[in-house]
Amino acid sequence: MEMLVASAIGLLTAVGVYLVLRRQTFPVVIGTVFLSYAVNLFLFATGRLTVNRPPIYAAGAAGYVDPLPQALVLTSIVISFGMTALVIVLALRSFLETGSDSVENSPASADEAEATQVTTDQARP
Amino acid sequence: MQTAINHWIIAPLVLPGIVAPILILASRHNLAAQRVVSIAATLALLAVAIGLYGLAQDGTVRPYLVGAWPAPYGIVLILDRLSATMVLLFAVLALAIVLYATAGWDTRGRHFHPLFQFQLLGVNGAFLTGDVFNLFVFFEVMLIASYGLMLHGGGAQRLKAGFQYVTINLIGSTLFLFAVGTIYAVTGTLNMADLARKVAAVGAGDTALLGVGAVLLFIVFALKASVAPLHGWLPSAYAAAPGLSAALFMIMTKVGAYTILRVYTLIFGADAGAVAGIVTPWMLPAALATLVVGALGMLAARSLLSLACFAVVWSMGSLLVAFGLFDAGGIGAGLYYVLHSTMAGATLFLLVDILVPQRGGAEDRLVPAAVGHPVLLSGLFFAAAIAMAGLPPLSGFLGKLMIMEASRGSAAVTWIWAMLLATSLVAILAFARAGSVLFWKPATPHAEPAAAMPSLKPLPVAVFAALLGATVALTAFAGPVRREMGLTAAQILDTGAYVRAVLGPAPLASAGRP
């Protein structure tokens, strides 16, 4: 089980890192989502992997699982959820205002515009 | 046992935490009421900060147990000289910024004052907390508010830069969580005092993992403090931000420096066993690189904002050189420089904000253009540039002198002196060039006449003058301030007292994790 969880976290992180290095905003947003999934799983696993153990109290429990990482993950999920919502709105606003979804400061070059296939006029309601 | 006086420790969090929602809910459409409440709350915060600073003067470390949960289990806030100094510094800066905002910035977008109050909450929390995960939470509060303040007023360029700023900080937050998780997995605690006790006792098999956590955490803090090569986000973000937000953000890089100082003296300091001083070999070269990058950026800057941003990067370099010494002299000098560079950096950004509307279409580009009120504005620029570049007679000069004095015992003294002096020269050159282009070179003939420039409002200039006055005061009272910072540095290095104050005298039988 350790191997499976560890490689899943590794894979999610790798996908996230690859995506945040992309040039368009949408893959970057998805990349940060993957990174936050990876880190949430990672935080969860820092309490060690156990099966069928109660976190706080149960009568006749053989042992307990560390409850703190679960609280940490909860906080982290809430924060990353809010951040993702914010960054999506920001990416959308920036696309609508500038007509380009490039992450860079410079105006969109011709090949990027081709890649996105959407012009500002079409995007504006 | 909590005493009544100790409850004031949480006031810098509770006050903005209550005011911000009230501003949103009760006076959303009433800017005048927002201004009154926001300024009153910031004044009250300043009063509390002064009170807390007085309280911390007796040299004891005061833990505040939130919800009265005993220390390693509940969240603690810590009031010591360092956190009191930082909270006071921020309260002074915040008061200046909120007054400045009422001159017009808060009408250019919505919700300036609530976001501003949330920013106060986040930064004060980061300074006061004694728990690593809680530090993460306050970092996020601080960052979310800063996203709003950075994007205040909107505009295409600001949105582009804002996306980059948010993304880099999201990645930073992810790294922070990875670091926190690693450290927790090894030690089983996230309370800073408890960590300080437990890291030394970590078994040999786990030290590598703990070291990874420590270095990851350093990378996060270095990102916030814009240490080279992680400084790249700062110039584009701060240049795109509204001038007064950039001035307020002067404290955010200092939060990074503060956390580096706190964590790498207390937890991974001299008593940390196998991971003692794990970042010390990296700190000084990184700080020196930051100095060089900042100075070169200033020289290459083609706009005044870009010059100001790289000046901030450069001053972070000087400051981290001092902290990188990790001894009482270096930390004391560095803390004096923190006070100076926060005030001087804010002064510079406010100056740009005052100057830009006076230059017509030239905005902040370093090209000759007609300037409204050239005598007054060139005088203000001269003063701000002297403060930032570290020329006598203002506090930047004294701060740099203190850092050089403190580094005399260091093995890298040649490097530190050479880099500090050489980059200072470059900084002076950059400011001199900018000043002569801005004010002395004749404008091109087809430029607009100076008469068309808007009139200068008295309030922004007064706030600017007050911040400059703070720099002058830092210079005039350099001796007493330096002594205070020396006492603070001594208290920071006395980690035993900190741990005892939080956890009680008896060392726990530090059984790590089962």
Strand content of chain A: under 5%
Strand numbers in spatial order across the main sheet of chain B: 1-2
Q: How many beta-strand segments of chain B? A: 2
Separate helix tally of chain A: 5
Structural class of chain B: mainly alpha
Shape of chain A: elongated
Class derived from helix and strand content of chain A: mainly alpha
Give the chain pair forming the largest contact, with residue counts: A-B, 33 and 32 residues
Distance between the termini of chain B: 30 Å
Integer average pLDDT of chain A:
82
Please describe what this structure looks like:
- Chain A has 125 residues and is mostly helical.
- Chain A contains 5 helices and no strands.
- Chain A has helices at 2-20, 25-45, 68-98, 110-116, 120-123.
- In chain A, helix 1 packs antiparallel against helix 2 (25-45) and helix 2 (25-45) runs antiparallel to helix 3 (68-98).
- Chain B has one domain (5-503).
- Chain B is mostly helical.
- Residues 508-514 of chain B have low confidence and may be disordered.
- Chain B has 20 helices and 2 strands.
- Chain A binds chain B through residues 16, 20, 25, 28, 32, 35-36, 38-39, 42-43, 45-46, 66, 68-69, 72, 75-76, 79-80, 82-83, 86-87, 90-91, 93-94, 97-98, 103, 105, and chain B through 133, 137, 140, 144, 147, 151, 154-157, 159-164, 166-167, 170-171, 173-174, 177-178, 180-182, 184-185, 188, 190, 236.
Concise summary:
The complex is a heterodimer of chains A (125) and B (514). Chain A has 125 residues and is mainly alpha-helical.
Secondary structure elements and pairings:
The complex is a heterodimer of chains A (125) and B (514).
Chain A: H1 2-20, H2 25-45, H3 68-98, H4 110-116, H5 120-123
Helix pairs in contact in A: 1-2, 2-3
Chain B: H1 11-26, H2 31-56, E1 62-65, E2 76-79, H3 81-101, H4 112-128, H5 132-150, H6 156-187, H7 192-198, H8 207-224, H9 233-240, H10 243-248, H11 250-266, H12 280-300, H13 304-324, H14 328-355, H15 374-389, H16 395-406, H17 413-440, H18 458-476, H19 478-493, H20 495-503
